[in-house]
Structures are given as C-alpha cells and as structure tokens.
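Structure, all two chains, one model.
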Amino acid sequence: MTVEEISILSAAIAVSFGALGPGLGEGRAVAAALDAIARQPESAGTISRTLFVGLAMIETMAIYCLVVALLVLFANPFVK
Amino acid sequence: MNSPLVIEPLFYVGPVPITQPVVATWVIMAVMVLFSLLLSRHLKPRPGRTQAVMELITGALDHQIEEVVQSDPAPYRVLIGTIFLFVLIANWSGMLPGVEPPTAHLETDAALALLVFAATLYHGVRSNGFVGYLKTFAEPTWIMIPLNLVEQITRTFSLIIRLFGNVMSGVFVIGIMLSLAGLLVPIPLMALDLLTGAVQAYIFAILGCVFIGAAVSEGRDAASQERSPS
C-alpha cells in the first residue's frame, strides 16, 4: 500500500470511530434531557439551553476527528 | 478537489493578497452597519414592522444573555449580539450563489474566537480587578493553576474548530454531492445547513457568553467566600 491509500483508509477509520462515541453520548444526553423536561416542563428553557451547550461540547469530539481526517487527506506531511 | 484548509487569493492590493472570505466578511460588515444605521435613524416610540422585528431579536438576545450571566445584560449585549448576528449571516450567506461562507475558513473563526477570548480577559479584569482576576486562576486551589491556564487555551481552540468544522463540512458535503449527483440534488442538505448554521451561531454566542460570565462570576464567588468564611 502506498502512503496515499493508507491515508484514505485512516481518514475513513478516524471519522467512523470518531462519530461512534459522540453519537452514543449525544443520544444519552438527549434522552436524559427529555426525561428531565417530562418531569419538570416548567424548566424546559434552562434544560434545553444547557442541552444545546452540552451537545456542542460532545459534538466537538466528532468535529476533531473530521478535522484530523481532513488534515490526513489534504495536508499530509508524508505526501509530497 | 480543493483543500478546505487552503485559500487562493482573489486579487492583490499592493503586496497584500485579498481572499474570498475577506471580501465576504467586509460585505457582510457593510450590510450590517448600513442596515443598523438606516434603522436607528428612524426609531419611533410606535415601532414599524422592521423596528418591531429588531426589537424582538434584541429582547430575545437580552433574555438569553441575562439567563447565562445572571446579571444585567447591558455590558455584553453589543459584543455577543454582534457576534451572533454576524455568525448567523455568515453561515447563511452560503445560500447565495457564488458565495462561500467566510466562517467555513479557519481564519475567520480564529478571529472571532480570539475576540471572545479578549472579551473574557477584559470583562474578568473589569469586574474583579487585575489581581482579583489572576486569583481566579488559583481556584479552588493553587494546584489547579496549570489546568486553568490550559483550559483557557483549549476552550478557545475548540470554539474555533467547532464553528469551522460544522460550517466547512456542510459546504464540503454540498460540493461533493454536486459533483457526484448534479443539479438540485443537494437542496435538502442546504436546508439542513440552514439549521446547522443557526444552531452553530447560537452555540458560538452562548459559549462566548458562558466564558465571559464565568470570568465575571468566578471572582464574585471567590470574593463572597472570603467575606463570609463559613
């Protein structure tokens, strides 16, 4: 395998496994937030704002993987 | 396919290369400034339609900022509101044909996040004093000083990467769909981009607000603890 083929493969692996964890985490977070809103509908505003900020934090992990994949594809230091 | 990390200069003003995001940023800035100048010149006690909409937006922003900062939103309204509206317009400007959102490039996001970082320092020093703000880095104990310093850098960095990654991936996916499937196929993805753009603008503004609020209130908590040792 050449460096380019390995790079493409590793970019795909990075994005796929990097999306796995945040996906599970976001699912748990949304489920917990829905549970909390169902119990206390009057505090839905605060909960959903905190949920958005928390989801953004979790999502950052997936975005990091995406950026790493793009670096591997487009700014690879081992490819001339 | 072009790399999303590299920008080609459009033209040169003397030795300075001018790129497409710079032009888009300046056009958005000019539109925002002209619109607000035109609007604020004809403010009436009985608002017209446009003024009512803008008052609604300002009120909603004030409400959100007040809930996060837990104090008067007036000192933060200008910065947070402008950042929110700018990021929103910039994210949605990708819907215009021929325009690439300036936030889809690392440099614009870095500038915005550094603005938030500078505002964090400014508001922290303004409300706690210079020494008082430095003391908040040693909260809860002095062992946390390196971690608090690293936190300042990493959260600014993640602010950059979050906005860049989200907007850029949207543009990138649309480009790939367009080259694979052709005309009119990426329209559902563009509709999704509208949603992502609005959510990311909201998150950017709220996170900036959270950082500033933390810098302001950490010192307040520390001071109140010193005053009433229980």
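Chain B is about 75% helix and 5% strand.
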